[in-house]
Amino acid sequence: MRGYLEDLAFIHDAGFRQYALGAAPGLQRILARHGITRGLVVDLGCGSGRWARVLSRAGYEVLGIDQSPAMIRLARKLAPRARFQVGSLWSVPLPPCDAVTSLGECLNYCFDPQAGGRALLPLFQRIYRALEPGGILLCDFAGLDRRPHGKRQHISIGQNWAVLASTTPRGPDSMVRHIVTHRLVGKKHRRREEVHRLRLFPSAEIRDRLKQSGFRVRTLTGYGRFRFPRGIHGVVGIKPGSRAA
Question: To 5 degrees, how large is the angle CA 241–CA 242–CA 245?
Fold first, then answer.
């Protein structure tokens, strides 16, 4: 199952790009604090490429990976100096790199049947092996406190588009978003529906799996001045070792 088909990908970039743009300055400062001012950054779940564009303009090499072909098409237009690939973050081969980022609940989405708690350790081990000594993993994820107590609805309206998202809990550690998009393309109105299931992770589980993989771990409440929304948590995983001069 794939999510973020053409219309939702367009709407997500048009109406919800501020998460990536707001986080970008703080993310850049964290990279610089760890001595990563150049080299390759792999962005898992890159979406429409807003963060990739910031990185490439700052002089980094960028490889963006996303399961949505529609998102990758947008990203290639927005960040032509970066490289992009359609693939699942749970299985795609990772090249040697200086940093890995994953923003906006990407670890929680269950588009890939491999996604879930058992897949965390193999994922983090694969990232650890790909990182150069001193490299870092920067990511955020939805915790158990992201789960709504009942059905929750949210409507957003933009120029020639609207989206209604209904979120419902499913068991103690998951939730489902039923998303209905309306988009005016030329004179044609399109209505589409997508269903996204998200597995929610206790923060301790993420930290433990990172430590088992070899990372030193630091928790985040935001990226610099950018504060996470309720229920979103962040971590920095640091691969021990000294960076090459």
Answer: 155
pLDDT attached to residue 2: 77
Range of the domain at 19: 6-144+199-238
Q: Whole-angstrom Cα distance, residue 244 to residue 147? A: 42
Distance (Å, whole) CA 232 – CA 105: 8
Do 222 and 191 share a structural domain?
no
Q: Is 230 found in the same domain as 150?
A: no
Q: List phi, psi (to 5°) of 72.
A: -65, -40
* pTM, two decimal places: 0.96
| Distance between CA atoms of residues 2 and 6, nearest Å | 11
- 93 and 169 within one domain: no
Q: Dump pLDDT digits (tens) for 147-172.
A: 999 999 999 999 999 999 999 999 99
Q: Find, among 22, 15, 51, the residue nearest to 154 by Cα.
A: 15
Residues 6+ positions from 210 with CB-CB distance below 8 Å: 124, 137, 217, 235, 237
The tens digit of pLDDT for each residue in 188-214 reads: 999 999 999 999 999 999 999 999 999
